[in-house]
């Protein structure tokens, strides 16, 4: 069976993940690879429907465990319908967020605990963990997201700065615990500079 690669881009709000998923996909295609880009929550019809449930409405719409289970359900559908078939047909899949966002947001910042959230996700994704996770870090991510979204932030993006600080700390803890899979990326400088740094961390997989 042909086997592609599964690469995820992670980080807090506004650090440049979506910009870099597009740029990295172009760079990998230029090297002759077949690349599929996707995002979470979302990436399949069912997961996009769950995305709307999660990101629209007020804070009280979901309890913390219900929120974590909805993210895990969306991810399970995304893996079933898009990620696994693409990788099995030899493509590289680049995902804008995946399981580490749940570990950092719901597990770390949301107080459910990283291991509890890992367990509910492991049940759904059945071993389809990323080959590599690129954790983008930028000190002005929140300001960039505000400049981009104005007053239109979603149910989770609009949480207080203390929540987003805890998200970043949790991402750093996850990276420290899994240094081979999760690589820290300085996301400052031009988009082209950041793409070069990302490519540099993938050389051994190419
Ligand atoms: N290297 C860069 N230099 C300057 N501006 C950038 C750079 N990368 C991205 N931006 C801008 O910063 C903003 C946030 O970028 P982007 O949407 O890619 O971030 P994100 O991490 O996907 O955000 P979110 O998780 O909140 O959706 C956008 O307006 C984008 O154009
Ligand atoms: C996958 C995932 C996402 N989130 C949060 C992170 C963001 O605030 C939104 C998604 O918005 P984006 O503009 O598409 O980045 O959802 C989360 O809390 N948990 C997750 O697993």
UniProtKB/TrEMBL annotation:
Residues 9-196 form the Thymidylate kinase-like domain. InterPro entries: P-loop_NTPase, Thymidylate_kin-like_dom, Thymidylate_kin_CS, Thymidylate_kinase. GO terms for molecular function: dTMP kinase activity. Keywords: ATP-binding, Kinase, Nucleotide biosynthesis, Nucleotide-binding, Transferase. The keyword Transferase applies. ATP binds at residues 11-18. Transmembrane segments: none annotated. Its EC number is 2.7.4.9. It catalyses: dTMP + ATP = dTDP + ADP. NCBIfam families: DTMP_kinase. Belongs to the thymidylate kinase family. Phosphorylation of dTMP to form dTDP in both de novo and salvage pathways of dTTP synthesis. This is Thymidylate kinase. It comes from Sphingomonas kaistensis.
């Amino acid at each position: 069976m042909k086997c592609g690669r599964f690469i995820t881009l992670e980080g807090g709000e506004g650090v440049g993940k979506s910009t870099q998923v597009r740029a990295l996909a172009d760079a990998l295609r230029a090297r002759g690879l077949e690349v599929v880009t996707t995002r979470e929550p979302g990436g399949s019809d069912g997961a996009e429907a769950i995305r709307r449930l999660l990101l629209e409405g007020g804070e009280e719409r979901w309890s913390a465990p219900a929120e974590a289970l909805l993210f895990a359900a969306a991810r399970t559908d995304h893996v079933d319908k898009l990620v696994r078939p693409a990788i099995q047909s030899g493509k590289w899949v680049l995902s804008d967020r995946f399981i580490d966002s749940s570990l950092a947001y719901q597990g770390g910042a949301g107080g459910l605990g990283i291991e509890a959230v890992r367990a509910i996700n492991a049940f759904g994704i059945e071993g389809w963990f990323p080959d590599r996770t690129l954790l983008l870090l930028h000190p002005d991510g929140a300001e960039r997201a505000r400049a981009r979204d104005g007053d239109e932030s979603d149910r989770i993006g609009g949480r207080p700065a203390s929540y987003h600080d805890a998200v970043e700390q949790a991402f750093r803890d996850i990276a420290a615990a899994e240094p081979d899979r999760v690589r820290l990326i300085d996301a400052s400088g031009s988009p082209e500079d950041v793409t070069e740094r990302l490519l540099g961390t993938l050389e051994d997989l190419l």
